[in-house]
Amino acid sequence: MKLTPFHTILKDRTSILVREVTHEDRHLLEIGFAHLSDQSKYFRFLGHRKNLTSPELTKFTAVNGPDHVAVGAMVVGEPSPEPVAIARYFRLPDESHVAEIAITVVDSYQRQGLGSLLIGVLAKFADMEGITTFSALVHGENTTMLGLLRQLGGTRASMDGMEMNIRIPISGNTEGRSLSTVDDPFKDARRLASFQ
Question: N-acetyltransferase domain: from which residue to which, for each copy (predicted)?
C-alpha cells in the first residue's frame, strides 16, 4: 500500500506536499538537517550532532513496509527543494503492536500543525498494520514535543534520566470510549491521507 501524495495548507498559509520518503531522498534529509538548530538536533538525536551518517541516511530512507514507514513534507512552489518535516515509525520487535516514532520539523516551521499531521498519517498506516500504540523517546526539556504528544493523548510510560518514554494510543479508542470526529487528534490526517 502506498500513500497518495497530498497537498495541504499550514497555519501560516504555507502550501506543502506530504508524501512517502524514498531511497532517493537522502539529499533532502541532508538539506532538512542543515536547517535544524543545534537544539533541535540535540533533542531529535538526544545528543550533539554535526551531520547524518551514511548508514543513518540509508536507514531513514529505507523502503516502507509493514514494520517501517517514513513520510515527509516539502514546501510547494519553491525553486529548489525545501524539506520541512519528516516522521517515521519502526515496529518494536518485542511488542508487535507498538511502534517507536521519531518526528523532526525544521525550526522555522514548528507550531504550524506539521508534527500532528505527520504523526496522524503514520497512525493511518499503523492502523492497517495492526499497530495500536506509538512510543516516543523524548528529552525532558523538549517541551514543544512533549506538549504535542500530550495533545495527541500521550502519557509518560517511563523516565530514564532526562529521557521520557511517551506512549500514544493510535486506535480510535482511549480508556474504553470511542473518539468522535471532533476529539480525534488525527482527524486531519484521516481526512487527507489516502492509499493506492
Answer: 16-169
